[in-house]
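Problem: given the chain below (147 residues), write out its structure.
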Amino acid sequence: MFWLIAMMGVAVAGIIGLGVLLELNRGKLPVVPRLVRGAVGANLLLFAGALAGLAILGAQDVMAQAAAQAPRGEISVGMGLALIGVGIPTALASIGAALALGPVGAAALAVLAEKPEAFGRTLVYLGLAEGIAIYGLVVSILMLGKI
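Solution.
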């Protein structure tokens, strides 16, 4: 089962690496769209296959073990995957908040340069964008209570 997790990690690292490569070489590297489409498709297929295999093989492995059999200080594979699942909402919500705060913050600074009296309103807009991360944290805390 660990090889499935490794395959998923390789697929995610490939997608992230391709994104970083395209971002760093914007305008410099002639990108062949067919090649990029094929690489992203292959990574997506690898990720989906590994995820399906993990769901099939991992569910049987977790369900086969009784909760009382695990030693008190150790964390089983199922518990580790559950803890990773708890952290995902906070991670994704934080990324979403960061993507929202960039343009909102730039616009807020532009408005403040022209009208300094609009400071309070710009803080409200920044707070609304930051609230997305707080919602993800609340969801993770609620999920942690269920484990």
